[in-house]
């Protein structure tokens, strides 16, 4: 009986209630963030891959964006996460592109080195995710190849506007927030991106 | 209003995303878990917020040390020992000027 009274006393203290509520909040936030990040991670990777043209750099950029979102904006309303995440990712991609430009200038002065020699073949990486059939696969592969090449060649702002609006499905306001510019600029960049792509892919698409 | 071109290009990009290889998918999952782990273990990362300030302070200290230049030599314990071990008598004994005063002072202390 004494033990019960003691335990009941502990569980009825206000601090325990606050602690339990905090744990529940943390768990709810963690679950919501997990769902959010799982829902966008592949498209985010594709956007980073097209911007950086390198899988490892793209993965680093996505991971950094995830880290920063959780670190700094987890407490923000859920509907703000998407534009915030893409803002962070866009900044990360831009920083990497700048660093790469500087590194390229430095490396141009150094003796040549074949980086392909260091690459190891990963059997998991080589495994295809699914097989839709040879004819369809060939057609899709061709379409993916030409579209990705054309998108990767777009000027950075047009590429961002196109991928965020068309691929990620952000509206003009969210895209403007993610790109750090006005809705008018987003519309201009998006329109030019479409014109550019239509000019290159008109016959294929 | 979405045009056929926009619709088609979205479908192609989505197909490309669905075809991501196992390694990339696995690394994305790992990245997500690593990001969420921060939420559960914020205490582990508290020191990270002090890293920029710490680095700035270290640079400032280094700059001060470098720019303050060479410091004048200070007499150390070895030099003190040399003075004490010196065979010569102290200056006030050699001069002899105030010897009477010191004898009187010593007598006062004894009494």
Summarize the structure in words.
The complex is a heterodimer of chains A (205) and B (111). Chain A is mainly α. Helix content of chain A is 79%, strand content 0%. Chain A has nine helices and no strands. Chain B is rod-shaped. Chain B has helices spanning 4-18, 22-40, 51-67, 77-85, 91-95, 99-110. The interface between A and B is large, with 44 and 33 residues.
In a nutshell, what does this entry contain?
The complex is a heterodimer of chains A (205) and B (111). Chain A has 205 residues and is mainly α. Helices cover 79% and strands 0% of the residues of chain A.
Assembly state here?
A: heterodimer
Order of helices and strands of chain A: HHHHHHHHH
- Please summarize the sheet with the most strands of chain A: none
Q: Low-confidence spans of chain B: pLDDT under 50, at least 5 residues?
A: none
Mean pLDDT of chain A: 83
- Mass-distribution shape of chain B: rod-shaped
- Strand content bin of chain B: under 5%
**Poorly predicted spans of chain A:** 1-7
Q: Give me the Rg of chain B, rounded.
A: 40 Å
Question: How confident is the prediction overall: mean pLDDT of chain B?
Answer: 78
Q: What best-fitting shape of chain A do the alpha-carbon axes yield?
A: globular
Please write the string of helix (H) and strand (E) elements of chain B.
HHHHHH
Helix content of chain B: 55-70%
Compute the number of strand runs of chain A.
0
Q: Give the count of helical stretches of chain B.
A: 6
Rg of chain A: 23 Å
Question: Which structural class is indicated by helix and strand composition of chain A?
Answer: mainly alpha
The N- to C-terminal Cα distance of chain B equals 115 Å
